[in-house]
Design goal:
The protein is of the alpha/beta class. It has ten helices and eight strands. Strands 3-2-1-4-5-6-7-8 form an eight-stranded mixed beta sheet, with helices on both faces. It is globular, with a radius of gyration of 18 Å.
């Protein structure tokens, strides 16, 4: 592959990284490569069995790596608060908000939010706010990377129906949650700059990468034929999780990253080496991003200093 690769990741020694959803797919590869390049990595995962297994896999693949599992359920704000309170150390250099759900049948989080909006956006909004003092403590070089998707084009956030209670459509709900990730990044970058913070907030997407994310929804509904069809697409069309993680790793570590940047695969936003990615104009709307910020603070109870 021509272009930026994992071999171009700068030395991460002395840095602490938190990666959500690090037990599989893009999150696991991201955590593994950061650990290989010297970072202390916290694997923030919902499932303890899979989280601990991922910890062992990273240790085996990167001997001597400093890596630890910590439980985090982004669909439960009490779990988010417990994770932040229990995280050791007084600084975090890198927060990769990777975990997410895709096109699920209609579900609610523990706190009563639509599952995709609640997990993909609100959980990460709360986590970022709670960890922001530690990112500020890390100073220059600290970063926040939010994972969005090319499918954010399916729709932007509707402030009149944030939880799609009028009519739930799983793919529109997913697209809205991914637009929320970009609106959050936009507003966070603006507020960090206004406050004179050295922390950089950027976003990334993996293109079409083969992970467990695509099959979760149909598996929940026991739609075996649809699950096999998705698995066939993953094998024949998608790029690997290792390739899909490259835009994330670039956003997290490359020296040329600017606030509110958005990286993805360079070839039609589908596959290839990382490059700055196209995004819908609504994801840079100052009024929409400020409105989403205000309602997110209210829903999560997490206020940013």
């Amino acid at each position: 592959m021509n272009g930026w690769t994992a071999n171009d990741i700068p030395d991460q020694s002395g840095r602490t990284a938190v990666v959500t959803g690090a037990n599989s797919g893009i999150g696991y590869v991201t955590a593994l490569e950061l650990a290989r390049h010297g970072a202390k990595v916290v694997l923030a995962c919902r499932d303890a069995t899979r989280g601990k297994a991922a910890e062992e896999r990273v240790r085996a693949a990167a001997p001597g790596a400093e890596v630890v599992f910590a439980p985090l359920d982004l669909a439960d704000l009490s779990s988010v608060r417990d994770f932040a309170a229990g995280l050791p150390g007084d600084r975090v250099d890198l927060l990769v908000n990777n975990a997410g759900v895709m096109a699920l049948p209609e579900r609610k989080t523990v706190d009563g939010f639509e599952m995709q909006f609640g997990t993909n956006h609100l959980g990460h909004f709360a986590l970022t706010g709670l960890l922001l003092p530690r990112l500020d403590e890390a100073g220059r070089g600290a970063r926040i990377v939010n994972l969005s998707s090319g499918l954010h084009v399916l729709g932007t956030v509707d402030p009149r129906d944030l939880h799609m209670e009028h009519r739930y459509r799983r793919w529109i709900a997913y697209g809205r949650s991914k637009s929320a990730n970009l609106l959050f990044t936009h507003e966070l970058a603006r507020r960090l700059a206004a406050a004179g913070s050295p922390v950089v907030a950027a976003a990334a997407h993996p293109g079409y990468a083969s992970t467990n994310l695509q099959t979760a929804g149909v598996r929940m509904e026991e739609r075996a034929l649809a699950e096999r069809a998705v698995e066939l697409l993953n094998r024949t069309v998608a790029q690997s999780a290792e390739e899909g993680a490259l835009p994330v790793l670039h956003a997290a570590t490359a020296p040329d990253v600017r606030p509110d940047d958005f990286f993805g695969p360079r070839l039609l936003m589908w596959r290839g080496a990382p490059a700055r990615s196209w995004r819908a104009a609504w994801t840079r709307d100052d009024r929409a991003s400020a409105g989403l910020w205000a309602v997110s603070e209210r829903m999560t109870g997490v206020g940013y200093l």
